[in-house]
Amino acid sequence: MADRLHLEIVTPSRRVVEAEVDEVRLPGALGEMGVLPGHIPLLTSLAAGPLTYFAGSQVTRYAVRGGFAEVLPDRVTVLAAVAEAPADIDLDAARGRLQAAQEKLKSATAEDLDELTTEVRLAETEIEVAGGGAH
Amino acid sequence: MPSTRDLTRRIRSVKGTQQITKAMKMVAAAKLRRAQTAVTNARPFADTLSKVLASVASRTEESHPLLERRDCAKTWLVVVTSDKGLCGSFNANLLRQVGRDLRAGRWSNVEVVAIGRKGSDFFRRREWTIVHQERDTMNKVSPADGPRLGGMFMKAFIDGRVDEVWLAYNKFVSVIRQQITLEQLLPIEPPEADTDATETTTDYLYEPDAAGLLAELLPRYVETQVQRVLYDSAAAEQAARMTSMEAATKNAGEMIDALTMLYNRTRQAAITKELIEIVSGAQALGD
């Protein structure tokens, strides 16, 4: 059995991450899940949220939104619409978007609700991942 | 015989043209590199998505509106051309092929979606209806264009306004070769599972479930397909422009050589003629 996972994160415009890691935590559609080497094959859709992976003592986080993850015993492939590293996140912009989305949420109709909640969650995740602390 | 002054003027003008074509070739080469990077960067996502979709589609009986095959009453033909000209036979070849297919009655009731100014100009002057046209997309393809156009096609398809969507475009094969390609976008033909690869035979656990996954995978797949086609066509366009501008530069060089030769000969003839005149004049005086 493989003792490490080959992690790949790809977005429509490029391959964001390709690394050997020990553990991956994914924001699955049905809640957060941790993947260790030897996981049974799984396909899941992803919610907006933080993706964390551990390589040795190193912990790396990304903010991802919308996509899928393919999990195999020795490999995890994440297809995300958006995947941002902490360094790429503009904290102020994220805060601004969070506020705007929360404002809109107060007067949202049923059909906008999904999109707005995703927007709120993504903004929150970005702030969290970028180390913006409490909001 | 043209005068030497006319010749120098023509040589100068051809040299000017050559400089322009040379500059255009350089610009196209730089843009081609960028377009090729976009194609390469988009590939891992598209490949993985096809693989995952093939795996899900082959293992589930679930249906989805985007997979539904209907009696083909109305077809949209999406023709991807360039916004700018001066790229050799890039647009002409594609439009000729498409025009031939349309006239041959390949689709019974067809409307055209023209992406790119050249295609839209072409269809405006002809008998086919244009349902939608984009005249400023191909100059700078953005990653948002695929989802935007894909979303439009999917909406029309699900609303029943159209029963089939086809894509006609120039596929980027290599710098010197573009291939005219006609593909069906909707309803989706799930990609064939690669039977050799071991992972496609894996039985996955689906989360939330196969139907839910399929419902998310399919729209993304359509968007990715459209995006890929746009990137491909943009790269092919720059490649075609580069090749044709290189040929133009070469032709201009040949023309300059020929004109210079003619210029020298004319000049020499004029000198000889003057000499003869002087000599015969002197002789006439001496006699």
Short précis:
The complex is a heterodimer of chains A (135) and B (287). By secondary structure, chain A is of the alpha+beta class.
Characterise this structure.
In chain A, 27% of the residues lie in helices and 47% in strands. By secondary structure, chain A is of the alpha+beta class. Chain A has two domains: 5-86, Sandwich (ATP Synthase, domain 1); 89-129. In chain A, strands 1, 2, 3, 4, 5, 6, 7 and 8 form an eight-stranded mixed beta sheet that branches. Chain B has two domains: 4-23 and 245-281, Helix Hairpins; 30-243, ATP synthase, F1 complex, gamma subunit (Pyruvate Kinase, Chain: A, domain 1). A five-stranded mixed beta sheet of chain B has the order 3-2-1-4-5. Chain B is elongated and about 115 Å long. The interface between A and B is medium-sized, with 23 and 28 residues.
Residue fraction in strands of chain A: over 45%
Low-pLDDT runs of chain B? none
Q: Total domains of chain A, how many? A: 2
Examine the secondary-structure arrangement and name the CATH architecture of the largest domain in chain B: 3-Layer(aba) Sandwich
Largest sheet of chain A: 8 strands, mixed
* CATH superfamily grouping of the largest domain in chain B: ATP synthase, F1 complex, gamma subunit
**What characterizes the major β-sheet of chain B?**
5 strands, mixed
As a percent range, the share of helical residues of chain A equals 25-40%
Key phrases:
heterodimer; A: 135 residues; alpha+beta; ATP Synthase, domain 1; 2 domains; 2 helices; 27% helix; 47% strand; globular; B: 287 residues; alpha/beta; Helix Hairpins; Pyruvate Kinase, Chain: A, domain 1; 5-stranded mixed beta sheet; 5 helices; 6 strands; elongated
Give the helix/strand layout.
The complex is a heterodimer of chains A (135) and B (287).
Chain A: E1 5-11, E2 14-21, E3 23-28, E4 31-35, E5 42-46, E6 49-55, E7 58-72, E8 75-84, H1 91-106, H2 110-129
Parallel strand pairs in A: 1-8
Antiparallel strand pairs in A: 1-2, 3-4, 3-6, 5-7, 6-7, 7-8
Chain B: H1 4-59, E1 75-80, H2 90-103, E2 110-115, H3 117-124, E3 130-134, H4 145-158, E4 164-174, E5 177-186, E6 205-207, H5 210-286
Parallel strand pairs in B: 1-2, 1-4, 2-3
Antiparallel strand pairs in B: 4-5
